[in-house]
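re: ur question from earlier - yeah i can do the single chain one, its not a big deal. heres the input i used so u can compare w yours
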Amino acid sequence: MRNAIVIILLLPNILLAQKIDQLASFRNIDDDNYFRLHFDNDYFAKTDENYTLGYNFELVSNYFKANPANHLFIRPKTSEFRYGLSVEHIGFTPNHYEFPGIQFGDRPFAAVIMLKSFIIATDTARSSRLLFSFNLGIIGPAALGEEIQVDIHEATGNKTPLGWRHQIKNDIVLNYELGYEKQLLRYSNLFSFNANSTVKIGTLFTNASVGMNMIFGIAHSAFSSIKRKRGFQLYVYTQPNLNIIGYDATLQGGLFNRKSPYTISSKNIERVTAKFNYGIVLKTRTTYFEYTRSALSKEFKTGSSTKWGGIRIGITL
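and the output i got, formated as tokens:
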């Protein structure tokens, strides 16, 4: 029965959560009806700690214009809109996940599963994009992080995780996100330079970030009309970000349930972190492929920096 539940979770999520960025112009798909699968794992960086895995299934469709959650979002009259839903699952572990005891000074075990409603508003006149999203879910054992990781490790012959009994306890996830990206410089279809910022408020993450991204290669503008003709694209991107941290339930425990056996205290949270993303994207008229790598500075004083990689596969409908 446990394996069946895990399979049911993985099928809609296969191929992440706060780590997935629908706003970024380098992840744009030139259509307003598509689905995309996301998969992140620290295996790509040859590590097995901190942010260890994430799955996401993202569906964008005009059908979601009638989603009641859209009333939570501002819809500028001058913008073109994409409406989406995604199911996201993320998991975190300390360095020695195979140890049965609490690993004081290291990250606690934590898992989150969420349903995410979002819209992307593109202002073609101002070459800018807005992202609004609302997340509803749960952090804790009900997210089945232990079951998923144990089954994956058993299937791949890796060490069995034994410390999940000390994970962050069940609590509700309610999170709101506002993101903004502005194109500052563009040269033909070969280079673009954009600024981006994000604010997240809620029971899971409360933080803000500011950064930029650059795209090199054959890439159509994500800030022009989504109704134009699509074609072959191949490019690389870089994205450095600076993050200001207010609250992180995967470290500090749920906002309402304070009974987690082990958490990181507020005074030990690093309030400023740096993140660097880079990757390569291939697009055809109907498909999207991406390989990405990420590095994040340490998130708490006794922690360590972390790295992971991911793949994205999408198709227009």
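Confidence is low (pLDDT under 50) at residues 1-18. not sure if urs matches, ping me
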